[in-house]
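pinging the channel bc i need a second pair of eyes. not urgent but kinda urgent?? the chain im working w is below, pasted from the shared doc
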Amino acid sequence: MKKYFFVMLLSIMTTATFAQSEKLIKAMEAKIAILDSNNSVDAWKELANSFERIAEAEKTQWLPYYYASYSNLMLGYASMPQDGSMGDNSSISDPYADKAESLLNKAISLTTANTEIYCIKKMVHSLRMMGNPMSRYMTEGAKATEALAKAKELNASNPRIYILEGQDKFYTPEQFGGSKAEAKILFEKAKGLFDTYKTESTIAPNWGRSQVWYFLSQL
């Protein structure tokens, strides 16, 4: 009899876990589907909040925290002045970078080191640098470069690595190492990798295609 009840309990727990996982996947798929079409502060704010709610409801999966971190970073970038000014905007950028880093640390605690984690680390440091480029280039810029190098070391076939490198080349003035020609090469490399890129699941990181098309259209 005890064995029977144990088997029944195990079956109920397995079914509940499966249902929870299915619910998580469906909720994630709906949000991930619009990542590459987002282009406004309000849209990124909504996505950031949605992914964080999913993450806190689940608590054991790293991907919701990863996407919540990414969405906060994109919200931070979108909130920055769009006039190309190089002043001190750290009061705008830092809260988003801090939030993104906090969420990323939760993701890190739930998974092993991987290329996607380090791409987001790179973005955290880049956003902090953008907050005050003149005083933070040597510190946050160096950390961003280090994180991207680690991402490449873990998986050099990740197209997002070359998107991030291309953006750096595109936006950095030539006197500081920027180059539109080199940016184009990097975006074309990312495009080529996307052509053969396969994700591990429907909710695995796959963002970046729209960014590639956009930058190539500008070049």
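so The chain has two domains: 28-155, 157-219. and Residues 157-219 form one domain. — does that match what u expected or am i reading it wrong
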